Amino acid sequence: MPSNNTPPLQIDQVHKTYRQGNSTVHALDGVNLTVQPGEFVAIMGASGSGKSTLLHAMAGLIQVDAGQVSIAGQDLSKLNDAALTKFRRKNLGIVFQAYNLIPALTAEENIRLPANETADLDDRVEHLLERLEMNERRSHRPMALSGGEQQRIAIARALVCDPAILLADEPTGSLDSATGTSICRLLRNLVDEERRSIVVVTHEPHVAMWADRVVVMKDGTDLTEFKTDGIRDPQTVASRYQQSLGAEAVH
Ligand SMILES: Nc1ncnc2c1ncn2[C@@H]1O[C@H](COP(=O)(O)OP(=O)(O)OP(=O)(O)O)[C@@H](O)[C@H]1O
What we know:
The protein is α/β, with parallel strands linked by helices. It has a single domain (9-247), classed as 3-Layer(aba) Sandwich (Rossmann fold). It is 34% helix and 26% strand. It has eight helices and ten strands. Strand 7, helix 6 and strand 8 form a beta-alpha-beta unit. Helix 5 (147-159) packs parallel to helix 6. The radius of gyration is 18 Å and the shape is globular. The relative contact order is 0.18. Adenosine-5'-triphosphate binds at residues 18, 20, 25, 27, 45, 47-53.
């Protein structure tokens, strides 16, 4: 876990365009975002507003056309491919809606996958299995796990290298609402108890309500943002979100 106060994530004036036939789509059009250590940020926005493109830019999975993406103070554009791969493995944890576990490996083997064999790896894996309440399921393969259990293993795998930031793309999108809530509570606890830094992309107010801050995207820009003030109420978040889109205030 990062111990200093360098922002785990900083995005300055990021632009990304795509060609679609004869037209150009500004998927990201000057986005700014800073996530502080121990902060939980949700990114909301309509379909096509640029959320996934932004998450992929944060994760170093796509190159941006202009602007800067820094993880734990490192400008990703300054790294060559090999250095970026190594840096991402150590500093970025990523969780997807579809879990993306390796079917042939056990839960524990999946968690260990991104990590190098270091002296403290066994301790970290034990801690994560305990922390995510998956100790008794450690020898099961993904097919023998429920969706919620698979997502817990995916979160443990994302945390095994002790990343500067955890990025999650619709992490509850494949889960029923009770299981989704338990995953959101887990993410919240990781922030409150271990000072993890988390960014979640979601359509869902009942996911975004667990964050400290909601950033609203529209047409490739970070339109506005609001704090949740610890009010874990989806209706409040939904109406603040709608107000943001209606007001179109640029901060
Ligand atoms: N690889 C690509 N090639 C061309 N256009 C793309 C590509 N990826 C995204 N886009 C376009 O960029 C814009 C933003 O897409 P993006 O997937 O980031 O939005 P989103 O907010 O994540 O949407 P959703 O909620 O539906 O996943 C859209 O107009 C999309 O069509």
